Amino acid sequence: MSASAARFRIGYLIKVPHQSFLDTAAKDPALEVVRMTLDDGVEAALKVLETCQGYYVRASRDELPKPMHVHDELLARLPNLLMAASQGAGYDTIEPAACTRAGVLLVNQAGGNAEAVAEHAVGMMLSLLKRFGECHAAMREGRAQRREEFMGRNLYGKTVGIVGIGNVGTRTAAILNAAFHCRVLAYDPYVDAATVADRGAEKIDDLATMLGQCDIVSLHCPLTPESRAMMAANAFAAMKPGSVLVTTARGSIHDEMALVAALKSGHIAAAGLDVWEQEPPPGDHPLLSMPNVICTQHTAGVTHESRSMITRIAAEAFSDFAAGRFPPRIINPEVKARVAERYLAALGRPIA
């Protein structure tokens, strides 16, 4: 088979998030999808990956063996690799700078699970304000309580601060505005005030200033060097007394032990946590036993609808690339010229 007729080979480890990826890819005769396993160890899987031009990468860092995370060491072994695609909106398992150094295009599936995650975030807000978890635990344990001991608060009309107003943050703002007439503030240094306004929020330039005004703070930013430990003891101290924290973003953005302290002191009334430093967290993690904390296991985006959509988007991105078109949702656009050179050399046809 000539280089121009060769199929674009994509490797993934063990399973894909939804059958939609395989079904969509199967419709494109230009794609060849290869399943890697760990049956014979990581090294055997890497030998298969070395033959691939595309890598469909698990996005959860604790579900992917460290040697298969996309970093300089791995990329040095993958001279054929032209494109890496995260299996979600996040790309914790992939180093964008390493991809750029290696001339590898990196894409994610941002927006594909925005509805699911936004609904989860708002659901946590309602559950925490109405104290569902506390009331359920007391009833299940047979502790007699007066109803007033679980008196909650309405979400309607509250001030909600959103950290990161991308796809999920924008959809969260829309729900809060339309259904609950909230005042929505946003801290996002990468989005200008006019765009923030178009997305349904008021831009606040200083994080601490925003935190002090909010009844609820909801995190929707990616994990980057700038956002790592952004919500630490000083940030929790800046939050309005009695406020609520919700995060469906990424573990390591909030300092878990600092949050424990803020909750124990009563300065923060409650927290809803979908993401963790270690996933799943150990069973004896103190946040799991706190009555004013609702915990989920990074399941905000895990719905049938969102998984179907993000996997279809990923397969379509590989199809675009194999057909000589740059796909949407590129994380490192500065690498496009280098990728175009490598693409032409490897496949014998241009990409535009």
From TrEMBL:
UniProt cross-references to Gene3D superfamilies, sorted A to Z: NAD(P)-binding Rossmann-like Domain
Keyword Oxidoreductase: yes
Domain D-isomer specific 2-hydroxyacid dehydrogenase NAD-binding: 122-300
Span of domain D-isomer specific 2-hydroxyacid dehydrogenase catalytic: 49-332
One family name in Pfam for this protein: 2-Hacid_dh_C
GO terms for MF: NAD binding; oxidoreductase activity, acting on the CH-OH group of donors, NAD or NADP as acceptor
InterPro entries: D-isomer_2_OHA_DH_cat_dom, D-isomer_DH_CS1, D-isomer_DH_NAD-bd, NAD(P)-bd_dom_sf
Keywords from the UniProt entry: NAD, Oxidoreductase
Record-annotated membrane-spanning stretches: none
Keyword Zinc assigned: no
Family recorded in the similarity comment: Belongs to the D-isomer specific 2-hydroxyacid dehydrogenase family.
Protein name: D-3-phosphoglycerate dehydrogenase
